[in-house]
Amino acid sequence: MNDVATQGVHKGLVGVVADVTAVSKVMPETNSLTYRGYPVQDLADQCRFEEVAYLLLEGELPTRRQLNAFRKAEAAERGISRALIRVLEEFPRKAHPMDAIRTAVSFMGMEDPEGRDTSVEATRRKALRLYAKIPTAIAAIARLRKGLRPIRPKPELGFAENIFHMFFGKVPEPAIVKAFDASMTLYAEHSFNASTFTARTVTSTQADIHAAVTAAIAALKGPLHGGANEAVMHMLKQVGTPARARGWIDDKLEHRALVMGFGHRVYRSGDSRVPTMAKYRDEVARLRGGEKWLEISRILAEEMLARKGIHPNLDFPAGPTYYMMGFEIDFFTPLFVASRITGWSAHVLEQMQDNRLIRPLSHYVGAAERKVVPLRARG
Ligand SMILES: CC(=O)SCCNC(=O)CCNC(=O)[C@H](O)C(C)(C)COP(=O)(O)OP(=O)(O)OC[C@H]1O[C@@H](n2cnc3c(N)ncnc32)[C@H](O)[C@@H]1OP(=O)(O)O
Ligand SMILES: O=C([O-])CC(=O)C(=O)O
């Protein structure tokens, strides 16, 4: 095998700057992140997710009047069609909800009144419909697979409250809603991560936003990306008790296994979003009696840093937070979708407005050129 590095190959596109963006800035040197110039921690603490969604889609934080109009428009689009519900009813009960929401978004594209219109104006309207309808579809998937009827969205509820209402039929206390809302803000956007880059690649072919988002959901599912928030909770449950945590990690590191929720391609000394998410996780643990998960998490993080020099990423505190809120583990990555749809849409719009087909090169290392032997002579 040739030495690929000497051939100009950037495996995994490590270190490659593929385009410019004005959506967000990831700064590993200071462990910080801004959305359109605003520090993500400040957005999570001081704004509602609806304001952040508006910021990502429109480029500026909304005035009160703009926010009211945006909320109204979103609330009016929350409903999903009977046809989509019938499709969801047919899905196998054992289907992973990420596969179900990926297929639901693909179906929404076929139903959308502007499905084939790839103008910027139509794409902006479709982005709003996706942002409004995705939570409704995810909650319907959660209910239907238990044999329960979906709960209709309530237009008078905020984005976060409405998700709890559609999943559980009730809205928890404000501190839990705030923690969830902050997680939506923290998950919303992160420059050219694998799923966003996938959405931009699909958009670069002039395919429509539903195609781009369907592909982005497929990319987010993997455990090296969004799927890690589910893997983290499975891992914490497998560890089981704080007393077992050090032995568990000894075993993993001895076998050179990945410890989920740790490491990051861009951040090397800590993920900008972790302290804020950990603060809300700790509050949820206090309210829900989940201190055991905090103690296991503390030991795993301490050991990973001391022995491997690797820090946790956002999925590490987010996974147990969703668990303590009562969500089933295989809905954690779909909840990530409900947030990241805003970042994906902002990137789709940005790509459309200054497009060039994304098409890198490859360095060939296969067989040398040879003659085709006809089938009858191949034995
Ligand atoms: C929202 C998000 O998508 S955040 C990311 C969520 N993903 C996870 O939590 C999955 C676990 N983490 C990982 O697999 C990786 O850290 C990734 C995929 C996120 C980043 O991958 P890369 O940039 O290719 O890894 P990187 O080059 O930093 O790895 C360096 C070394 O650290 C090791 N390492 C990195 N992460 C971990 C981990 N979580 N557990 C154990 N070892 C790890 C690698 O195996 C590698 O070891 P080696 O040099 O002996 O081969
Ligand atoms: O940036 C990445 O590679 C992954 C990530 O943290 C995200 O998408 O939020």
Automatic annotation (TrEMBL):
MF annotations from Gene Ontology: citrate synthase activity
Tell me the Gene Ontology biological-process terms attached to this UniProt entry. Answer: carbohydrate metabolic process; tricarboxylic acid cycle
The cross-references to Pfam families, in alphabetical order and at most eight, read: Citrate_synt
The yes or no answer to whether the keyword Transferase is present is yes
Q: Which pathway does the record list?
A: Carbohydrate metabolism; tricarboxylic acid cycle
GO terms under cellular component: cytosol
Against NCBIfam families, the record matches this protein to: cit_synth_II, PRK14033.1
Q: Which family does it belong to?
A: Belongs to the citrate synthase family.
Kindly provide the name given to this protein in its UniProt entry.
Citrate synthase
